[in-house]
Amino acid sequence: MINQSDPMGLFSDPETFEKKNDEALRNIFGKKYIKGNFLITMKHRVMKTNPEIYNYYDLSISRERILSGSTPIDFDICKTIVGCHLSNIIFLSDEERAAREKSEDYKNELVNNVIQNIKLRPYGSSHFRNLPLMDGELFLVHNLPYDLFVMAMRMNELINDSHKDNKFLSLYSSISTKSLAALSLLGDNFLGSCYPICRAIIELYLKLILLRDNPDLLDEHFMFSNFEIRQSCCEQEYPDEFNKLYNERINKSKTSKSDYLHYGWVDKIEHYHDVVKQKPYSVYGVLKFLKKTHEKGETQCFDTLAHFYKLCNGFTHGSVSGAKYPLLHYFEVSIMLYMTLKNSYIFLCKDLGVDAKINGIDIIAKAEKDFTLLNEQYSQRSTELFERHYGNIKQ
Question: How far apart are CA 348 and CA 343, in angstroms?
Fold first, then answer.
């Protein structure tokens, strides 16, 4: 029977208070995402395995924390468990899932996974909503999106703290902030809206690769960027300096001024137009040149990015709004951001001479491991598996 003078059990003994909390957490997460008993068992195991976990939470009592609605530790731990576990069991049958949840080896692995993510929470879940803005999935606490969010936040921190004169920083900043925007939309279940941003990130990433190969062109690139700002935001006409360059362009068969505005700086790359005959002043021209000038492994990566870039077009131009299965968006957005953001983070750390580890966690190795699993799941996708998945996740 509920004590009307103390309905939340705040003044009851600690054991009763914890039981009431566990019951509430079962109600929040257990009805839709995970078996309630498994969740609470894992919560207690996480908290007992590493008592130092509390160091990653602000336990101070202040008016500011009360007014801003700080996230309770139990809630954050359970949400992290849900994200890690759901990442692991995608497309498993009921029998396979039950076997995982009974396995001591799997439970230990899951505990370690959760503790790792909590150690990363200053760059991760400390910035998340408690629940998505739109009812649905909890994709942002799945392993790979979580890794990517952490890397993007760390990139912003490094860029803001950097005192080095590095002309690539503005490109890194554009990639990291747009990645955070896409991940935030993914987290709030605005899934189709992620694609136009991912398309822009792919384009920025390809420019970054090309400019890293040709660093002497950075000033030329920024000059064209300034032309674009002046034309689109201020003057509404093409600047005279741009018109002069346009009239002297190498490939005069291409007459689109807007295309040249975006990519006219490629005229300064030696042999570029020997390789690229069609659409030289476009992302497709850049892709063709990069495939010609990079090793085979990278060429396969460029092919994948080209595929996803085209996939984004329908979302960008409004002809496609979303797929029947939200999980498909989770796969595609995660893959696009992994292939662009992860490498950008590696480049930034090398440029600044800083360790890529975050709070002692090898975030690159972690992301690579999480990507391997997600990519395997993506390769298995089928209508039957999607249907089974969405029949299985609800309790």
Answer: 9
Q: Judge residue 3's burial from the number of C-beta atoms within 10 Å of its C-beta, 0-12 exposed, 13-18 middle, 19 or more buried.
A: exposed
For residue 361, list its beta bridge partners.
Answer: 358
Instruction: Copy the structure tokens of residue 384.
Output: 């039957």
Give every residue of the chain whose pLDDT is below 70, as ranges. 1-13, 60-71, 234-235, 319, 392-395
Question: What CA–CA distance (Å, rounded) separates 304 from 120?
Answer: 29
What is each CA distance from 72 to 21, 57, 65, 106, in whole angstroms?
Answer: 10, 9, 11, 26
- For residue 192, what pLDDT is reported? 94
Largest CA distance in the chain: 84
Which residues share a beta bridge with 358? 361
Res 102: pLDDT: 96
**Which run of H or E residues covers position 264?**
none
Residue 162 to residue 18: CA distance in whole angstroms: 45
Q: Among 300, 376, 311, which residue's Cα sits nearest to residue 339? A: 300
**Residue 356 contacts by C-beta under 8 Å, 6 or more apart in sequence?**
345, 346, 349, 362, 363, 364
Among the listed residues 349, 343, 342, 347, the one whose alpha carbon sits nearest the alpha carbon of residue 157: 349
342-372 pLDDT tens trace: 999 999 999 999 999 999 999 999 999 999 9
Phi-psi region of 9 (alpha: psi -120 to 50; beta: other; left: phi over 0): left
CA 42 to chain centre: 26
- Count of H-run helices and E-run strands, the chain: 19, 0
